Amino acid sequence: MSEVGPVAASRSRSIELPTRRATMALARALAAELSPADVVLLDGELGVGKTFLARALLRGLGLPAVIAVPSPTFTLMNEYPRELGVRVPVVHADLYRVRADDAQGALLETVAELGLRERRVEGWALLVEWAGEAPEAFGGDVLSIRLARVDMGRRATLVASGPRAAMLLGSAARVG
Q: Considering the entire predicted model, what is its pTM?
């Protein structure tokens, strides 16, 4: 059964991102609220800005500019522990290659093989690109962000699947 009315509206929001600065402002707002064990899923077509948003969020958490934030497309995941200067330890994963194989089956298997749910239990925030619409694969209560190109930049559609994710959504809503 899907949610309708005010409850559903409070669990989703679209934010226009006409510039890179607007995307960085969204990332900073999320970083200010991000806590251990939070999960942010990033989706959208190739080149829409998922890694840019992830990089900006990590910078917002305190990751120094001298530390590179490469896309984890080929490594599948990169870890950013507190020792690197982040306020919250983060696992940044990219499931593009997995998703190209078999969306649901391979995704669930890879999430398990990478130990992403275990990392979450250990207090790492998860920032996952190309996770699709699979919050349950990460234990639920996730903030999903779908980026799309629009005439004047990008649009971020945010959907919260639980109470903690709704708090993240609330911080992001102040940007838009």
A: 0.89
- The domain locations on the chain are 14-161
What separation in angstroms does the CA of 59 have from each of 3, 31, 54, 116? 35, 8, 9, 22
pLDDT score for 101:
53
* Residue partners of 176: CB distance under 8 A and separation at least 6: 13, 14, 15, 16, 26
Phi then psi for 166, rounded to 5 degrees? Answer: -65, -35
- Among the four given CATH numbers 3.40.50.300, 3.40.50.1820, 1.20.1740.10, 3.40.50.12280, the one describing domain 14-161: 3.40.50.300
pLDDT < 70 positions in the chain: 1-10, 99-104, 133, 176
Q: Which residue type occupies 29?
A: A
**Going by C-beta distance under 8 Å and a sequence separation of 6 or more, which residues neighbour residue 63?**
69, 80, 84, 85, 86
CA atoms of 171 and 94, how far apart (whole Å): 24
Q: Could you count the other beta carbons within 10 Å of the beta carbon of residue 59?
A: 18
Give the C-alpha distances (Å, rounded to integers) separating 108 from 5, 13, 58, 115: 31, 27, 25, 11
